Each structure stands twice: as C-alpha cells, then as structure tokens.
Amino acid sequence: MNTTSTNDNEKQLAAGYAVLARCWREPDADLVAAIETGDLDEVATDIDTVSLDALRIEYTRLFVGPAEPPCPPYESVYRDEGGQVLGPMTRAVVTWYRSYDLEPDVEVPELPDHIGTELEFLGCLYRENETEAAKQFLEEHPREWIGQFLNEVREATDEPFYAALADTTERVIEPLESTTPP
Fold it and tell me: What predicted TM-score, i.e. pTM, was given to this entire model?
C-alpha cells in the first residue's frame, strides 16, 4: 500500500468534508464569493451567481423556521423517538467528539448533531488519519439519517445551490469505496 497516496486521499477527504460542513451552515458573504469565483464548482456545478439575501431566506425557510422547518438539519430529529432535538443521538455524537478531545465551537450556533457539525468532525478524523474511526462514525451516524434529510432538501428547496449541495453531499457520504471528495 502506498502511504503517500493514502495520506493524500485522507487530506482530500478532510478538505472535502470541511467544505461541505461550511456549505451547510448559515450563508455569508464568503460563501457567496466562493460560489461566484468558482471555488465551489465541484459542490455547486452550473451555479455562477447567487444572492446572499436569497440564500439566507432559503436557509431560514428550510432549516430554521419561523414555522416548523421542512428539513431540520439535526440527526436527532430523524433518529430519536418523537423527533426531538438534544436526545440520545445528540449525546452519542457528543461522546464521539469528546473521545477526540473536541467540543463544538461556541462561535458556531449549531447543535452537535447538525449536519455541518457531523461533516466537520469527519473532516477532523480524516485530517488526523483516523480512517477507521471515520468509517465507523459514518456508519453509526451520517449514513443513518442524511439520506432522508437530503431528499427532503431536494423536495423542499427553491434554491439551486441547496439542491446541488444535497446531491454532492449524497455522493460524498456513499460507501468509501466509491467516494470522491468534492
């Protein structure tokens, strides 16, 4: 086995998961700039311009509310009884994070089982060459719920960026044998 190519692949996966994690967070001017300069072409193909206001409105409508959002981005909603946030699945991912001496960033106002946080954690695992742990976390957490979430995003969104992001995320979380980083 070629250790250099394995490390390069893990670095690519780490970077890819970090990019996806950022894309699932609340949109800002940096995200818009990355889309418009082509830095996110592999995530959002054929999208040349976007409006920050439009992205923020759609983000809020899909994932936040004010009414019940059509696509809650939290594992616990899909896997815990009654769809409650901060339940057993949230605690399970926090246990994973703490086992690597990680805590969710207090600057990021998302719950520990938010899609962006879980993808960011996968990026950290790959960056630290923890491939087996990443595979296990993928099987125990993201692959158990993200498919349903991504389908809901595709059905509910009016914004091409989020439809493209759902498609790219789905390709990336497929079994590792067929995964290509964004």
Answer: 0.89
